[in-house]
Amino acid sequence: MTNQRDLDMVHLRLILVSGKTQDFTFSPNDSATDIAKHVFENWPAGWEEERVSSPSILRLIFQGRFLHGNVTLGALKLPPGRTTVMHLVARETLPEPNSHGQRNREKTTESNCCLLL
């Protein structure tokens, strides 16, 4: 029998660049930083080749975007009771939150026309 706490938990399947996966369960209140620390402290046996030196370089990617450290799972409105897939990568720094949007704005000023002779 499952209790309400189990239903409120967020199930994540983390995928490494190597393609290896591992399932974890977290609270909706856990942040990206909390998740990185938990994974680092409970590094799966099958991931030994990918072990990193510090939890501070572990980054989560969800729907193509890096999650900044203070973003909680609850803020992402993940479906309860389902497993959500995220990528886990080692990266020293994150791109600025609006750098992708800025790059898109710059592209709109370019001309993409061609000249027909």
TrEMBL record:
Its main location: membrane. Transmembrane segments: none annotated. It is a lipid-anchor. Pfam families: Rad60-SLD_2. CDD domains: Ubl_UBL3. One of its GO terms (cellular component) is plasma membrane. SUPFAM superfamilies: Ubiquitin-like (SSF54236). It is found in: Cell membrane. The keyword Lipid metabolism does not apply. Keywords: Cell membrane, Lipoprotein, Membrane, Methylation, Palmitate, Prenylation. Residues 10-88 form the Ubiquitin-like domain. This is Ubiquitin-like protein.
